[in-house]
């Protein structure tokens, strides 16, 4: 739910609407809108849609996604890309694991800078701050702010994989 709420403020990536469900069979959980998708995924479309993949890769850095597999990138009937499965995000330890390493070493795309600045302002003292306070623990929020500030640093670059562990298995 926190990933969806952050994506709404950023304006990207496309995450299906996700809400907290308090009265679920096994306790509190989340429900996400089902996306009717074809069988394509990131590895099929890796060389296309550079802007979309930059957004997804940057989002994964910001939320510290520990499980971005290719099959978590869905294509709907309108050819729009949706990303799902954000259950391993916002951890306080550095855990970035993704199949999208295409931008390693590159700077923050200037076109995304304003979006990140807006998100940081919202996380610090906007409506998103209140929402995240209900969804995440204080340490997770503090580190989210740190990652948002970090990517805005002119010296920041997309990270590089640090080991074989940096790529989830299986990749799809």
Describe the structure.
It is a single chain. By secondary structure, the protein is α+β, with helices and mostly antiparallel strands. Helices cover 39% and strands 11% of the residues. The protein has 6 helices and 4 strands, in the order αββααββααα. The chain has helices spanning 2-10, 42-45, 50-63, 110-125, 127-135, 138-152, and strands spanning 18-24, 27-32, 73-75, 81-83. The strands form 2 sheets. It has a two-stranded antiparallel ribbon. It has a two-stranded antiparallel ribbon with strand order 3-4. Helix 4 packs across helix 5. The radius of gyration is 16 Å and the shape is globular.
Strands in their spatial order, largest beta sheet: 1-2
What is the count of β-strands?
A: 4
How much of the sequence lies in strands comes to: 5-15%
Regions with little confidence, pLDDT below 50 for 5+ residues: none
Average pLDDT number = 97
The tally of helices reads: 6
Using the CA coordinates, give the radius of gyration.
16 Å
Helix content: 25-40%
Distance between the termini: 23 Å
Shape category:
globular
Largest sheet: 2 strands, antiparallel
Query: How would you classify the helix and strand content by structural class?
Result: alpha+beta
Q: What is the string of SSEs from the N terminus onward?
A: HEEHHEEHHH
